[in-house]
Amino acid sequence: MGRYVIRRLLQMIPVFIGATLLIFLMVNVMGDPVAGLCGDRKCDPATATQLKKEFGLDKPVWQQYLTYMGNVFTGDFGTAFNGQKVTELMSAAFPVTIRLTVVAIVFEIVIGISLGVLTGLRRGRPIDTVVLLLTLVVISIPTFVTGLVLQLLLGVEWGVIKPSVSSEAPFDELLIPGLVLASVSLAYVTRLTRTSIAENRRADYVRTAVAKGLPRRRVITRHLLRNSLIPVVTFIGTDVGALMGGAIVTERIFNIHGVGFQLYQGILRQSTQTVVGFVTVLVLVFLVANLIVDLLYAVLDPRIRYA
Amino acid sequence: MRGATHAKWAACAVTVALAATACGGGGSGGGGGDGSGIVSSSWGDPQNPLEPANTNEVQGGKILDMVFRGLKRYDPKTGEAKDMIAESIDAKDAQNFTVKIKDNWKFSNGEKITAKSFVDAWNYGANLKNNQKNAYFFGYIEGYDKVHPEKGDPGAQTLSGLKVVDDRTFTVKLSQKFSTWPDTLGYPAFAPLPKAFYDDHEAWLSKPVGNGPYTVDSYTKGSKMSLRKWDGYPGDDKAQNGGVDMKVYTDNNTAYTDLMAGNLDLVDDVPAAQLKNAKNDLGDRYINTPAGIIQTLAFPFYDSKWNKPGTEKVRQGLSMAINREQITETIFQKTRTPASDWTSPVLGEKGGYKGGLCGDACTYDAAKAKKLVEEGGGIPGGTLKVTYNADTGSHKEWVDAVCNSINKALGEDKACVANPVGTFADFRSKASKQELDGAWRAGWQMDYPLIQNFLEPVYFTDAPSNDGKYTDAEFDRLVNEANGETDTNKAIGKFQDAEKILAKDMPAIPLWYQNGSAGYSDKVSDVSLNQFSVPVYNEIKVN
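ok -> structure tokens follow
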């Protein structure tokens, strides 16, 4: 186990370097960011040169990358164009997005897995068909439609929620955005759980457990569900990263100043420091989430051992 | 039925979720009509640090307009530059100015405003070392080339053209004649700065201190700024409300939704998608007034294909092939007005605006357009590529419409094609480096309501925003003469003569004048936009 973890951690290093390098190059390919800072007019050349020097844009790309990575290891993520430290932007954006992600994941786990178990146990019954249809509808409607409709109905028409989230973004204001963000994944979790449960229901160990006379609840939670969760956990694990970086649509609709919004701003303004900084952290989140998922396999199915 | 319990549980979770969010209600304080109510307004995250000489876009400009007052201020209704802190600005020769300031002005931290407050601020703004993006505003002052050389380090730290005479007087020497120069002083870059700005710059940036009707109460970068009325404000344009809360929105659609739901008092940028509904939704509370912004299509004069005799006929023909009326009506819901000169109606007849100056070339006439383009030798390269940035401003729709109009008029499917560029920065970088062929969208938002500002920075030889590298000796001569003219009416006449050369050469096709659009809730009144399409916050009353 310990060796496995160490090996995995070591594997992360090339992935991390490769990913950041790619992002760095991609942002650089987009051209000269200083040109966008002066609005519809040309920056005066002297100021532009001076600004480039300040942001280190006058050096060759490889040198910029090396300096950047050197700084990252000391915790210095550079300065965004509006004069704010990127770490400052992060400390404002990540807590908000983490809260939003937590809300979304909880919805996925609670609603998704419950519905999955329910339908998996009752395959072919009316309830199964209804849920299948519902999930199909949710999957086929884009998030921004769900978001805007809910915002309009609950926020403007019925006045149940505030249509926009305040800058503090407390948990209660994030419930509806979280639900919207989770909606598509939630449908997938339901379907994954359903298939897995339906398959394993006929497995030998379930039959044995039933034959032993175990109570139905114990059979389902301890034997059936636990073994059926492996694909679901894999999905949710990768979804953590996807939700954090990909919440841009939801964040825009509900005015959430999180990671997606900062990334979007960074890309629009071609602020290399902001984009690379945020992506760096997101890459780490992805890697760690994947590691945790892999380790969870062993908990769920003791037959899986890591040498 | 175990399944049923599960379903029930899920239903409960959703109900709880809905109920809990409902608790997040409650708006900001009222206060009644006694001038103490707080206005909440939509805002965008400023792109640059908030310093007078470093702020060149609307979002930061809004704040400066509340927190700062300069020597002059543009009357929000007429656009006229009126004395604010200045008692008098005199010159005999349009080049040597003596500025006298009023006695009773101070910063909100109690510091007195003296001639030095201005001279130091301008020296700071002009100095290359300080990276101020508006430094070129000080370019007319003598000695600018020393403190802001095109290459290398500055040879001087202060502008030699600025001299403090006494506490209330300073003199300005310009490097060339510029009779309307005092009228440029309403631009925020010319604001005075308190000592605190230099002493602790970081602290000042996190909470700017100025001399305007509002003070900054709190500022959370990227999300919210609370401004409060400053009771000690000496000017006569005191705030009519208790303060303004500026909230950053990720999307102006959300801001509009918030306005509809009653969570926001003022949206100063109605999203394009909502323009159709705004009149219905808001009635009289929808504002659509002209702003000092013109959209044009610029051409690359650095490309020999576009710079040979005869191509002016092609450009005029293309201009004639654009159905401005139809596009402004269907796509912009009349928030744009078809342009017929190169300035803006906000200048007024007196200020130099002259509708119809462009003549027939700006009137839609498909048959004549086709004939002109053919006479001019056809579109260089056969196809006109119109470049625009696709990230903001919903330019795609109108560029497509313009191309459509041209294609229909010329009877060719491929006469005009749109060419989107991913980001604004990339678009600007390509335009300013002369990498674009064909035409590109060239918006111009005025810095100050002067006809000079619409012509000189954009069409003068090698001017900073002359991206197409248009050059015409006669145009340059007329602009220089106009600048040297001490009589304003004569100066404007000369500028209009220069504009007639643009009508002949058509270096850029005028498309339309842009309006500012805003909407407000029934909780506030006396809302209006100034010529820069910025709300006049200090006049807003909370009911």
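DSSP finds 17 helices and 19 strands in chain B.
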